[in-house]
Amino acid sequence: MTVTVGTTTTWTTGTPNFWDNGTPTSIDAAVISTNYSETATLNACTLTVNNNAVVAIPVGTNVNVQGVVNVVSGSMALANTANLNQSLDVTNTGNISVTCTTSPLMRQDYVLWSAPVTGQQLQLFSPGTLSNRFYTYNPSTDYYEAIASPSTTNFIEGTGYLIRVPNTHPTTPTALSRTFTGVPNNGNVD
User: Fold this and answer.
1) Mean pLDDT for the stretch of residues 12-34
2) Rounded Cα gap, residues 112 and 130, in angstroms
3) What's the whole-model pTM score?
């Protein structure tokens, strides 16, 4: 598939901050070069974060990018229920963080997690969880099997991991927030 790129527009400092070449559309290259935390849906052909910009995508906000997301410098964080949607199967570069919040849970409950990024280690994702409480499903046995070493194992794209909440989690129903950090996954998973 060929993508036609329109113009490049850059989020820059002003009063207030603004897109220097108009709000990007699905055919425009968007460059964020200063801090960004808008609640409006962001549409772009490609998205680049540079100049040490801090990009904070608020709860429930969508970022729709046709092509690549490239975090050169700075950071890009998606809050719970914020979405990064990509329509082309391209390889992204640079790390983002994605925070997810569960329904209320109690100590010794489990959550089935799947990472939206590449490079997230299991134990670092849930450091308060005992190392013998990380599992993945084995379809040939129809059982969940323990991960031998969650401190040296990364999430695998498209794979669910059953992880018990930290041992310090309350005994009363309390939501749990966790943050994934890594290169955003994209494309089909076989």
Assistant:
1) 94
2) 16
3) 0.93
